[in-house]
Structure formats: C-alpha cells, structure tokens
Amino acid sequence: MLLSVLLVAALVFASNSIFGMLRISKVDGRYTPLELGVNGDQISVSFFPAVFEYDGTGTLRRSFKNDFLSVNETGQLTVGKTPQNGFVLRSGKNPKKMKLFLNETKNFYLCEDDLILLFLTCRDARKVEITFEDALR
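Given the sequence above, the corresponding structure tokens read:
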C-alpha cells in the first residue's frame, strides 16, 4: 500500500500537470464556496468533489478516469470521452486558486438543479465563477 502511494506521488511530482478540484468561488458576485463533483456525466454542486488534472494544453482530465471536462450541445458542463480544448487557468492573488476560463469567459451559470451551464438557458440561473484549487500546494 505504501509503495503504491509513493509511486502515485512520484508520478505527480514528475509531471508538469496540476492536480486539483473545481469549486464555485462566487455566486452572483459574492464569495460562496461550493464543491463541484461528477454525477453520471454531469458536473454539479456536490459533497464529493472530483479531482482533475490540468496539463496546460487547454484540457482538464478527471484524475484516474478516462474522461475530460467538456461542454455538451446544450451548454452544460459535463465529462466526456473526448478532450475539449479551450479551458484556461489564470492565477489571481492566491496561486493555489486559479480562475477557470473557457474560450475567454469566466462566467458560468448555476441552475436550480445544481447543474452548471455555460449559457444562460435555465430558469432562475445564477452567475458563478469557478476556481481550480491546486491539491498539492
């Protein structure tokens, strides 16, 4: 067991990837920390955050899974088998917390059912900002 933990740690430190969790940092402009996880193939507010790997190429891969953060045809944030480019992490005051952008936009929308959308298409949606919090710093 200890050997496998050490092996994973060595791989993480040897790579140029950043491992972390997606969190909602602001809702309607106010600091409101909420964890984001994966339920089926949907990204939603969750008590069980998902860990993603960002390698600087514009994609986010779910750690230890073979799926990637993406936006489906209805604008919903999901995970899928095909990598989607365009995701960028930008540092702010705290280098551990980076804002998530997709194609130059940082605004996403939280629906009543706790799902996350790129477009304002659900009723009573609230504008949110998503951060990627580095798990190793």
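The chain has one helix and twelve strands. Try to locate this feature in the token string yourself.
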